[in-house]
Write a structure and sequence with these properties.
5 strands; binds adenosine-5'-triphosphate; binds L-tryptophanamide; globular; mainly alpha; two-stranded parallel sheet; 3-stranded parallel beta sheet
Length: 334
């Protein structure tokens, strides 16, 4: 760990396991982008994590490229930040193996994402799904990361990463920086539009439950019009009004308004008007991102150049950390 004045480091990853949706943006990506102002940033498309669930190879490759382009379209600067594809830096897998040997089985068994995914993928409960959070810890620890911008659902994995780092440091000295989660106060858990008791998720079979970042305008408006709310009519942020609270959070982010402003704007106007306004604002918000995305996808050479250079920079740094780790645990130098 360097002790000279260094900029703090932000690290995060997203799986290319399907379309990127509005909750990924609100819960995570917008913070990735914002942190670029003050932090040195590493952002990663975690294709190695994605194969813990069976993937069609062609889809995985396309989804990886699409997720990368979407990251850039949302504002990740591939020159300023190191934006890369996980499998392009082999130290991730290497460190994950080492850390597996320092992670108790029982701690992994308590991970709620593992329990949930074992239920939804009961036909393929593989060892990778079980050790998934160790690979995540490796991602983070390789880059000396200070903060990890994620949604609320990743809190438990972050806690495990911290435990792994502390345990390893306890044995070998200060090898890893212990990272902090960076979770927004508002928007860290965006709920499904079809069932406000469940989180918005790209693996939800009902496409009405989420807004893809690529949904066309009329689809966005239709989905918000049919969003499940409650039987009252007052637009206000209150416990028990999960559907409306969720729409208020989304509207607040895309239109830059506070809850008070939203309540005043829709006083006496009912849910119909409100849902329409949310739909239109989200569509307006997505439109320039979609335009940028399609431009990038049409210029494969440009984004390929970006991920190759990101991969090179990530490899150089992660290989250095890996060499230190191997030396600490007692491997003979190559
Ligand atoms: P799946 O739902 O299929 O497990 P996912 O949509 O959670 O996938 P990930 O790649 O696992 O997507 O997550 C990327 C980032 O988006 C993570 O930081 C995660 O915490 C965040 N995120 C995912 N869903 C939500 C949500 N509903 N609200 C806020 N943030 C979310
Ligand atoms: N596990 C995360 C994705 C992820 C990640 C990371 C997030 C993989 N590696 C490193 C932050 C830092 C998820 O399922 N959303």
């Amino acid at each position: 760990m360097e002790q000279t004045t260094r900029r703090k480091i932000s690290y995060s990853g997203i799986q290319p396991s399907g379309v990127i949706h509005l909750a990924n943006y609100i819960g995570a990506l917008r913070n990735w982008v914002a942190l670029q102002e003050e932090y040195d940033c590493f952002y990663c498309i975690v294709d190695m994590h994605a194969i813990t669930v069976r993937q069609d190879p062609r889809d995985l490759r396309e989804n990886t490229i699409a997720a990368y382009a979407m990251g850039v379209a949302c504002g990740i600067d591939p020159v300023k930040s190191i934006f890369y594809i996980q499998s392009h830096a082999p130290a991730h897998g290497e460190l994950a193996w080492v850390l597996n040997c320092y992670t108790p089985f029982g701690e992994l068994g308590r991970m709620t994402q593992f329990k949930e995914k074992s239920e939804t993928h009961a036909d393929n409960i593989n060892a990778g799904l079980f050790t998934y959070p160790v690979l995540q810890a490796a991602d983070i620890l390789l880059y000396d990361s200070d903060v990890v911008p994620v949604g609320e659902d990743q809190k438990q994995h972050l806690e495990l990463s911290r435990n792994i780092a502390v345990r390893f440091n306890g044995i070998y000295g200060d090898v890893f920086r212990v990272p902090e989660p960076f979770i927004s106060k508002s928007g860290a858990r965006i709920m499904s539009l079809a069932d406000p008791a469940k989180k918005m998720s790209k693996s939800d079979p009902n496409p009405r439950s989420y807004i893809s970042m690529l949904d066309p305008r009329d689809t966005v408006i239709k989905k918000f019009k049919s969003a499940v709310t409650d039987s009252e009519s007052e637009v206000c942020f209150r416990e028990g009004k999960d559907g409306i609270n969720n729409l208020m959070i989304i509207y607040g982010v895309v239109a830059g308004k506070t809850n008070n402003e939203i309540e005043r704007e829709f006083a006496g106007r009912g849910y119909g008007d409100f849902k329409m306004a949310v739909g239109e604002s989200v569509a307006d918000f997505l439109s320039p991102i979609q335009e940028k995305y399609h431009g990038l996808m049409a210029d494969r050479a440009y984004i390929e150049g970006c991920w190759k250079s990101g991969g090179e920079r990530a490899r150089a740094i992660s290989n250095r950390t890996m060499a230190t780790v191997l030396e600490k645990v007692g491997m003979v130098r190559r």
